[in-house]
Write a sequence for this structure.
C-alpha cells in the first residue's frame, strides 16, 4: 500500500514514516505542505496521513481540495495533529478526514486507526 505523509516538520514526517515502517507500511511518499501533497496525489496513493498546521496550504485546506476531486473522494485520510478541541475535530471530519489522531502517538495507535479507516473504506 502506498502512503502519503504530509507535514511541514521533517522530524515529524520521519517519526510517522518510521512508525509506518514498524507496522509494515514501507511504500511512503512525503510532502512538506498541502500544496506539495496535491502534486503527489496520483492514482497510486491509497492512504494519506496529514498534519493540520502547515504553511502554504494547511491540512484542512488540503483535505478539502482533495475531496473536491472525484478521484480522491474516498481515499482514506488520517489527520495527525496537536489540535484537540472538539470543534477542530468536528471541522476536520466535516472537511473529509476519515479519522483523527492526537500527537504524540504510538505506532500501535497509528496501526489501530489505519486498520479502522481501511476497513471502513473497504
Amino acid at each position: 500500500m502506498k502512503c502519503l505523509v504530509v507535514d511541514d516538520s521533517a522530524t515529524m514526517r520521519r517519526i510517522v514514516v518510521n512508525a509506518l515502517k514498524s507496522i509494515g507500511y514501507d511504500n511512503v511518499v512525503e510532502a512538506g505542505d498541502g500544496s506539495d501533497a496535491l502534486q503527489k496525489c496520483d492514482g497510486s496513493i491509497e492512504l494519506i496521513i496529514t498534519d493540520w498546521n502547515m504553511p502554504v496550504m494547511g491540512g484542512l485546506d488540503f483535505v478539502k481540495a482533495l475531496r473536491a476531486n472525484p478521484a480522491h473522494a474516498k481515499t482514506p485520510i488520517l489527520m495527525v495533529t496537536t489540535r484537540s478541541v472538539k470543534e477542530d475535530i468536528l471541522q476536520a471530519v466535516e472537511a473529509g478526514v476519515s479519522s483523527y489522531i492526537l500527537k504524540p502517538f504510538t505506532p500501535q495507535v497509528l496501526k489501530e486507526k489505519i486498520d479502522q479507516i481501511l476497513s471502513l473504506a473497504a
About this structure: The mean pLDDT is 93. DSSP finds five helices and five strands in the chain.
